[in-house]
Amino acid sequence: MPDAEAPRLLCVEVYGSKPLSYMTETAAGLLERLARTALFVPTTTRTPEQYGRVRLPGPAPRFAICANGGRLLVDGVSDPDWQDRVAGRLAGECAPLAEVRAHLLAAADPAWLLKERIAEDLFAYLVVDRALLPQGWVKELSEWAEGRGWTVSLQGRKIYAVPRPLTKSAAMREVARRTGAGLTLAAGDSLLDADLLLAADRAWRPGHGELADTGWSAPHVDVLEETGVAAGEEILRRFGAAVARSGEARGLARDGARGGAEDSSRDAA
Question: N or C: at which end does the chain have fewer Cβ atoms within 10 angstroms?
Fold first, then answer.
């Protein structure tokens, strides 16, 4: 957009002493209001340490989902019961992380491999020079990983190898179970967000990211035209409207239940 029309931005993440991530000031206000009327759960592939760099407006979230669902933070602390459940499932259904990591490093070419990382001893990813990445390399890796209970995805400059049971949706369902949530709303733009969007009652996908690049959609997922910080702002508007409608519906349901009880008592009398 023209510079004179650009929104004012709020920095919400600093990395290496430099500002890194932003949201519009309008979005900050929308998020603050939303977090006071609904249970807002930040959900990310970031490790808890990486998530700790993000400083969102509003009250500190009671729950946060990190490491693609492998860590469930409760008041900022990783929940040990969830951690044990995840570890048990991965051990029973997937090849060991060490085997996958060894294959990744053996198959990668130093000419295009920039970094390799292990996240919370749960999954691995490579940072690559995408221009030099051979065509078909990710597909071959995916086929190798599939028989071992792992999935592979290319997102920007990163190639993720993630155990198939390690999902954001599983952690979201656990939060919903613990809190008794009757309605779940989600938004995301990456391939690792797809399971989360499918599991939510309603979901939104912005006009940027890997899901947009592949044309991914689902019947209950609204596709937005907005990209970047404008998409974040619009998603928060949609969240707020959905929460308001849900509250109105609950109010009507309660009124109807009271009316029914009164009618029944009169009939009984």
Answer: C
Written as six digits, the tokens of 224 are 């937005």
Return d(Cα 262, Cα 166) in angstroms, integer. Answer: 49
**CA dist., res. 93 & res. 76, Å (int):** 29
In this structure, the dihedral spanned by the alpha carbons of residues 254, 199, 84 and 95, taken in order and rounded to 10 degrees, is 170
Q: How far apart are CA 14 and CA 35, in angstroms?
A: 22
pLDDT digits (tens, 9 = 90+) for 175-209: 999 999 989 999 999 999 999 999 999 999 999 99
Distance of CA 265 to the CA centre of its chain: 48
- In degrees and rounded to multiples of 5, residue 9 shows phi and psi of -115, 150
Nearest to 213 by CA among 114, 146, 130: 130
pLDDT for 261 equals 36
Cβ-Cβ contacts under 8 Å for 31 (sequence gap 6 or more) = 23, 40, 56, 57, 58, 236
**CA neighbours closer than 13 Å in the CB half-sphere of residue 113:** 13
How far apart, in whole angstroms, are the C-alpha atoms of residue 178 and residue 117? 32
Structural contact between residues 88 and 70, judged by C-beta atoms closer than 8 angstroms = no
CB atoms within 10 A of CB 150: 26
Residue 194 amino acid letter: A
Tokens 């409207």 -> residue: 241
Model confidence at 264: pLDDT above 50: no
